[in-house]
Design a protein that fits this description.
12 strands, four-stranded antiparallel β-sheet, two-stranded antiparallel ribbon, elongated, 1 helix, mainly beta
Length: 247
């Protein structure tokens, strides 16, 4: 049975499986493992058409492949070219009564010249390599007006991770205290198996995205030296070990 003509053409049938020993009606001593290749690709981006209009569009394609025997291996690889983030001017918004409710605000201008490296190393403290000259050389945070840069106008850090599991079934001999069909399954789950350093996405108004904090005695914005750097990382390699005894 197929869900659509496309599934019929690609051999992606609806798949259901049950394993039974016809002599006992229970699970057999040997098990077969199946996997199916599922692929999903999507593209999404923001286009700033006007100062007050940002268009967000995307397209997605999914494919569910036919099942195949996996011998206990089930890899998953995830890659993101860079998490989008938005620069803000300051978290000090005591301009008028009630202004704190719309804080933080965005810079009134982007002066250009910043780097666009989405590699992990570009976002490590103590300073972001994409903004080597200090934040106020790239953004106009002195004054008030309409935002000069769009939301999600910068990208990074990049993300990649390989997860997989490996399993092995062992049939156990028929003994007086074990019924026929007894088996032992050993499984290991690996998350971020290559122990890749991945940084957490930047949040709006955090230390990572704030250009400046207030002004000095000369009424000049005070640059935030941690701008563009990650404040935390995601989990490293995690291994889970499981054992299942069936009888």
């Amino acid at each position: 049975m197929f869900n659509s003509p496309w599934d019929f053409a690609s051999g992606a049938a609806i798949f259901e499986q049950i394993e039974v020993n016809p002599l006992t009606g229970t699970a057999p001593t040997t098990a077969r493992y199946y996997r199916e290749g599922d692929y999903a690709v999507y593209f999404q981006d923001d286009w700033k058409l006007r100062g007050n209009l940002t268009l967000n569009l995307g397209v997605r394609w999914d494919h569910y492949g036919p099942p195949s025997e996996a011998r206990g291996l089930d890899p998953i690889f995830e890659f993101r070219s860079g998490f989008p983030w938005t620069p803000v001017a300051s978290n000090d918004c005591n301009l008028v009564l009630g202004a704190a409710t719309i804080c933080p605000i965005r810079p009134i201008g982007y002066l250009g010249g910043a780097g666009h490296d989405a590699d992990t190393s570009a976002f490590l403290p103590p300073a972001a390599s994409n903004f080597p000259n200090g934040t106020t050389d790239y953004f106009d945070a002195n004054g008030f007006g309409l935002p000069g840069d769009g939301r999600n106008s910068f990208r990074g850090p990049r993300f990649s991770s390989l997860d997989f599991s490996a399993a092995k079934n062992f049939g156990l001999p028929t003994l007086p205290f074990l019924c026929e069909g007894a088996r032992l399954e050993l499984r290991a789950n690996f998350y971020n198996a290559l122990n890749k350093l991945n940084l957490a996405p930047f949040t709006f108004g955090s230390t990572s995205t704030t250009v400046s904090y207030g002004k000095n005695s000369s009424d000049v914005p005070i640059p935030n030296r941690l701008f563009g750097t990650a404040s935390t990382g995601l989990a490293g390699r995690v291994i889970e070990l499981q054992a299942r005894f069936s009888f």
